[in-house]
Amino acid sequence: MSGLGLHDAFLDRARHALGQEHLKQAVRRTTDRLRDGRAAASAEAGAFEAWRDALSEARRRAIGRLDVVLQAWQARAEARGVLVHHAVDAREACDIVVGIARAKGARLAAKGKSMLSEEIELNQALEAACVEALETDLGEWIIQLAGERPSHIILPVVHKPRGEIRELFERHGGEPLSDETRVLAGYARDRLRAEFLRAELGVTGCNMAIAETGSIALFSNEGNGRMVSTLPRTHVALMGVERIVETLADFAHLVRLLPRSATGQRVTTYVNVLSGPARPGELDGPEELHVVVVDAGRTAQLAERDYRDALACVRCGACLNACPVYSAVGGHAYGTVYPGPIGAVIEPLYARDDERRAELAEASSLCGACHEACPVRIPLHDMLVRLRQDNARRGRGGPTALALQRIAARAMAVPFVYDAAGRIARRAARLAAGGGQLGRWALGSAPVLRELLRRRALPDVPIRSFRELWDELEEER
Asked: Which CATH class is domain 45-299?
C-alpha cells in the first residue's frame, strides 16, 4: 500500500474517471437530479423525518434480534410452500442456485435486478454450468451487453450517455436507432419480451422479507420484475440475511421511504409482495419458489457494535447521490460491487483481509452528506473514521502514512507546537501559491508532502488561522 493509504489501482481508476468528461457529466447530471428529487419528495411529505425515525427503528429492531426474526419468517414462509436455503458464502449460494437450475433442466435463467447476484457472481456460475443468465432490467441488460459491472446501486448505467447506449444497441441489433428514450426502451422490450416465456428459471433479489407473513417483497419500476417472478415455472429469490423487518407496519415505512430516497418518486411503480408459489386454481405464479438466504460476512458484521448499523441499509443509493467523491468519479473507480459511501463501509467488512477494499475508507471527504441523506440514518462518516483507525492499528497504509499520523497526533496535543506548525505551513503555502521557490521547495521536498500533493488538491490557505481570528473577536468583546 502506498504512502497515504490508497492503492495506485484506485487512484489510477479515479484519475481515469476524472479525465472522462462525458462520464463526469453523465454521473453529475443524474446524481444532481436524484438528489433534487429526494429533496422535493421529502419537503412534500410533511412526515418524512418521522418516517425516517420509524424505519430506522424498525430495521435496527429486526437486526438486533435477527436470529428470532429470521426463524419466525422461515417458519411462516415454509408453511406457505416456500423452499428456504441458507448459504454461508458466495460459493455456496451459487452452488444452490446452479443445483436448482440443473434439477429443473433449465437452459435459460431470466434475471431481475439483484445487487446480491452481482456480489456472489451468479451469472458467471450459471454460465459455467451451461445455463444462460439473461438480465431483463433495462439498465442491467445494457451493462451485460457492454461487458461491465453496474456503477450505481439502483441505476446501473448512470455513467453512460444515451448516445453510447444507442451505439451499443445498434451493434447488438444491426440496425440504426435514434437517441430517444422511447425508441431505446422499445428496442430492449422487443428483444427481451419473448425471453420471459422461454426461461425455465426466474431469478430475483429480495428488497425485504416480512417476518409477520413469511413474505418477500420486490420493488421495481419496470414490469420485468413481475414477469421474472411469475412466468418461469421456478422462481429463485436471493436474500441477504439482514434484509428483513418484523411486521407489515414496518414494511409500510419502507414503501414510503425507499422510492422517495432513491428517485424522488412517491411510490415505486411495482411493489410485489410474494407469499409462496402459485396455489391451486391461480392462473399465474411459479410452481416452486426458492429463497436463498445469504450470509457472506453479514453475521460477522452483526457482532461488531461499531459497524452493526450498516446492516440496516435498504440499498436506496441516496448516499451515492449525496457523496461528492462518487459524483466526481462514478462507481467503477471503487473497483467493487457496492460503490460510494455504503460500499466504502461494507466492502472492507465483507472481506477483512483484502487490502484493496480496506483502502476505500480513505475515498471519502467525511463531509457527512451520506448520513444526512440516508433514510435509516446510518452514520457512515463515523464508520469510515473507525475503519481508518482500524487500518492504522493493523499497520495498513505504509510507514509514511503512519509516521505522519503520529507526528500530527503529537503536534495537536501541544498547543504551542500546533500553532507554530500552522504558521509555518500557511507561510510556505502562500509562498508556493505566489510563485516563491522556497515555498515550492518546502511543500515538495519532503516525501510525505510530495505524496500528499500528488494525491490531493490543497485548499486556499487563509491569511490568519481560526484561533487568531477568535482571539481578535475576544478582544473586541
From this structure: alpha beta
